[in-house]
Amino acid sequence: MVIYGVALLAGCMLVGLIIGDVLGQLLGIDANLGGVGIAMLLLIFVTGYLKDRGKLPETTESGINFWNAMYIPIVVAMAASQNVAAAFSGGMVAILAGVLAVALGLVLVPVLTGKRTEDARPLDAVPEQGLGKSDVPAGPTRIGH
Amino acid sequence: MNDSIVSLVDKYHLIAAFAVIGLTMYIAYWLSRHLTAGRLHGSAIAIIIGLILAYVGGIQTGGEDGLADVTLFSGLGLMGGGMLRDLAIIATAYGVRFQEVKKAGLRGVIALFLGVLVSFVAGAVVAVGFGYTDPVDITTIAAGAVTYIVGPVTGATLGASSEVIALSIAAGLVKSILTMIATPMTARLIGLDNPRSAMIFGGMIGTTSGVAAGLAATDARLVPYGAMTATFYTGLGILLAPTVLFLIVRGVMG
C-alpha cells in the first residue's frame, strides 16, 4: 500500500529528528544536530534492507517516490516564501558578508574535490547496467532534469 | 462574489498553493524550453520566479514570509515550510548510492568544518571592514554569514542588540538566495557534476535552503548528496560560533 511507503519515510524522519535532538542536547546546544541527514541515512539502509529481501513492493515505493518528485515544487514554494525584501534592505554589510561567504565557498569546492578521479566521475558517465538493484537512482529524481 | 472566492482560496490554502506552484513550474519549464532552448534549467527559472514573487510579496505586505504573507497565497508557507521540505529532502535519499556517500564521507566532514570557518571569517572581515569593533557584534554578523539560523541563535546567546541580529539574519538570507541563483551558473566551473563534489558543496555552503534549491536547479540527482552534508552545517555552526569562534574573535580584537 502507498501509505506504507509514506509511513516508512515519516518514521525515518521522526527517528532521525529524535536522534538529532538528543545529539544537540548532549552537546548542550539548542538545535537539532543533523537530524535530517541521519534520517536520510536511515532511509537508505532500511529501504536497501527491505529491497534485498524483496519486501518493498512497487506501491510502497511509490509512496516514497511521490515525495521525492514533489521536492522541486516544494523548493519553489520555499523560495516564494523567503524574506527576500529583508535580505536586500539589510544594507551593504549583510549583502557583502553573504556574497563573500558564497564566493569563497564555491571557490573552495574544486580545491576539496581534488583531481577528477574514478570516484568523482560525472553522474552521466556512470554506466547504468553495472549497478546493483538498490543502486539504480530512483526514477522520479530525474524529473525536471 | 470576489470576497467569497478569496475566502474559499484562503480556507483551502494548501490546495491553492499546489495549483499556484504547478502553474509556476509549467510557465518556468515553458520559458526554459522556448526562450533559453533548455540552457537555463526549468527549475532554476521556477526558483527565480519564486524569489521575485517573494520580493514583491514582502514589499506589498511588509511581512517576513514573502508571497506567503499575501492572504491568497498563505498555503505557500505550509508547502514550502520546514516540515514538508525536510520530508521531501529525506525522500530524495531513496535511490542514493551509499558507496558514494562513504567515499566522500571524510572530505564531506572536512568541508563542513572548513565551510563554517570560511563563512564565519568572511562575515567577520566584512563586519570589521564596516567599523564594528565589539566582539559580540562581529561574532553575530559573522555567524549570520554561516546561516540565517546560526546568526540569531549566536546573537541571542551572546546578548547582541536586535539591530545586529537583524543584520546577521539578512546576511544569511543573502547567502541563501545567492546560492540558489549562483549554483546552477557556476556548477560547470567548479566541477559540480558528481556525488563527491555535491557532498563537498553541501558542506562548504551549508545553508540548507540554498544548497537544496541550488542543486535542484543544477541536477536533481545531486540533491540528496549535497543535502546530506548541508543538514549538519547549521548544527555545527551553532555549536562553534558562540563558543570557540567567539573566543577567537575576542582574542583577536583584544
Automatic annotation (TrEMBL), chain A:
Keywords: Membrane, Transmembrane, Transmembrane helix. The keyword Transmembrane applies. The chain crosses the membrane at residues 7-27, 33-50, 62-80, 86-112. It comes from the Bacteria. It holds the Pfam family MadL. Residues 123-145 are annotated as: Disordered. This is Malonate transporter MadL.
TrEMBL record, chain B:
The keyword Membrane applies. The chain crosses the membrane at residues 12-31, 43-60, 72-96, 108-132, 138-158, 165-186, 198-218, 230-249. The keyword Transmembrane helix applies. Residues 6-252 form the Malonate/sodium symporter MadM subunit N-terminal domain. It holds the Pfam family MadM. Keywords: Membrane, Transmembrane, Transmembrane helix. This is Malonate transporter MadM. The lineage of its organism: Bacteria, Pseudomonadati, Pseudomonadota, Gammaproteobacteria, Oceanospirillales.
